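User: Predict the structure for this protein chain, please.
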Amino acid sequence: MQFDIWLLFLLTSLGISLTPGPNCLLVLTHGAMHGTRKTLWTIAGGLIAFTIIIAVCMFGIGALLRSSLGWLTALKLIGGAYLIFLGIKLWRSPPVTVSSDSKPRITSGWTLFRAGLLTGGTNPKSFLFFSALLPQFLDPHGDLFIQFLVIAATYALTEFLVEYGLAAMADRVKPWLARVGKKFNHICGGLFVAVGLALPLR
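Assistant: Here is the predicted structure, written as structure tokens:
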């Protein structure tokens, strides 16, 4: 993966990680209920789930590329359109709200890990999203496994940093999201639209 493409993926990955989703909300909730250290179990479960999803999507896409490079162009166009759709949907979404009282009090590290794993791995939107996003950054002539390692590690890093920050500042972040959540949705939605428009054309 070329450095400029990786840098663009890093910025896109950061935008994805910052976008409020099921795992972010779970980490916020667990951070408020159990503290930062214990919420690391939740974060670890989510990261493993996302890594598995990225692997399934990338190697599935790789199989298509081996049959015909024309699939890459088609996937880029379809994926770009889907990212634009998601961006518009996020732009219109209401601010997210989180309540630490909405979840049962969980104390076992394994249970927290399982909650993060299942929340990340059972969301069908994650498969659709990564299937749309990843073809924009793949080099069909490069080593797919090396690209997987780079992409998975980059996304895991940004996701960990964001989720750890959310867990550490759970009590402060929740009212902030309620106050400026609409503008935050506009920024993240605009980022998805920009990626959806620009990357299929490169």
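The CA atoms of residues 58 and 134 lie 7 Å apart.
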